[in-house]
Specification:
single chain, alpha/beta, Rossmann fold, seven-stranded parallel β-sheet, six-stranded parallel β-sheet, globular
Length: 372
């Protein structure tokens, strides 16, 4: 069976790593071998669109997560949504026709996700969508458009939760739907086994465990809105007067700050530590050691929950509603006073219910791919 996997952004590298490792594990399995010992069950062709294309947002994740080198690198780069998606479609179609895979596997909600699904559907290749059924119910988000369209194209829909399955049912999508859990939990469990390889990032930044905040900011709804961006940075500056705030700065966010003339971490009494983007192992080390996480990233909301670190989400809604319902995540939006109050007053419950994963999601996905 030939699987063509399309990835292009950091969260997709993390998710795909778990499935790629599991595909390799299935191929090594004596039980699943075919008659010829050298024959494999799966062939995976990996296509990297280049949506995230610099070393810190791309290559380092391939190295750390032990993802095979991509067979194709499209090097699309950044650009307006329509242009970026179109460039991917133009390059993906001949690759799909040449490789003729049995299924195209896409992840999440980026332009790479939609382009992979559209390109496959146009030439009648089945599509499998990992992380199907998520909804923010905010159509102003490009990610929402991507995930809705991809779900309506997909033949196999791998949901992380029952809530996601219910979302699909409300849109009359019931065929090919499977609740499998979240592959990011598989990836996080894998990284936990590499704890000895974590660089001493805390010493480098002069930080003590549980005595600092870690923040990330990259979504267009925040970076492309001058008022929201300025309010969030203002809140981080104010919070840094109480304790250090570490902000690995996404290139997109840096560009927007520069264009708007918004300064960060430069005042005398600020302890906002602006750093370059870091790899996954280092980021998990920072998250695990932080007192609290502030983010507009879906992946980090889940990682915070799994690691037992309280999370403040810098959005007005979230797809990961269970983290809010279980008391470990607060939606603070981009209101400075609400962000500051949430950080200073947040007390999570003493227990956490298991959510989204058990480290066997990738096995379920690969088994379902094999049986369909």
């Amino acid at each position: 069976m030939k699987i063509l996997t399309v990835v292009g952004a950091r969260p997709q590298f993390i998710k795909a790593s778990a499935v790629s490792r599991t595909i390799a594990k299935f191929n090594r399995s004596e039980i699943l071998r075919t008659v010829k010992p050298e024959q494999t069950i799966f062939t995976e062709v990996l296509v990297h669109t280049g949506q995230h294309y610099d070393d810190e947002l791309s290559a380092i994740f391939f190295r750390e997560l032990e993802i095979p080198e991509p067979h194709y690198c499209l090097e699309v780069g950044s650009g307006f949504h329509g242009w970026q998606t179109a460039q991917m479609l133009v390059q993906l179609e001949p690759i799909l026709m040449r490789e003729n895979p049995d299924v195209v596997l896409v992840y999440g909600d980026t332009n790479s996700t939609l382009a992979g699904a559209l390109a496959a559907a146009k030439i009648h290749i089945p599509v499998a969508h990992v992380e199907a059924g998520l909804r923010s119910f905010n159509r102003a988000m490009p990610e929402e458009i991507n995930r809705v369209l991809t779900d309506h194209i997909a033949d196999l829909l791998f949901c992380p939760s029952r809530v996601a399955q219910d979302n699909l049912a409300r849109e009359n999508i019931t065929k090919g739907v499977h609740v499998v859990g979240d592959v990011m939990y598989d990836a996080l469990s894998f990284i936990a086994g590499h704890a000895g390889e974590v660089p001493d990032i805390l010493a480098q930044l002069h930080l003590k465990p549980q005595s600092f905040l870690i923040a990330t900011l990259h979504r267009a709804e925040n970076t492309d809105n001058p008022e929201r961006l300025a309010n969030i940075i203002s809140a981080l500056e104010e919070l840094s007067r109480d304790e250090p705030v570490v902000l690995p700065l996404h290139p997109r966010t840096l560009k927007c700050l520069n264009e708007l003339g918004i300064t960060a971490g430069q005042s005398r009494d600020s302890n906002l530590k602006i750093i370059e983007p870091v790899g996954y192992i280092t980021m998990v080390a920072l998250e695990k050691s932080a007192r609290m996480i502030l983010t507009d990233s879906g992946g980090m909301q889940k990682e915070a929950y799994w690691l037992g670190v309280p999370c403040i989400t810098l959005r007005d809604e979230t797809e990961w509603v269970e983290t809010v319902e279980n008391g470990w995540n607060i939606l603070a939006g981009a209101d400075s006073s609400q962000i500051i109050h949430s950080v200073r007053s947040f007390l999570p419950p003493s227990n956490r219910m298991p959510l989204y994963g058990d480290s066997k999601t990738a096995e379920r996905i690969v088994t379902l791919l094999l049986s369909n």
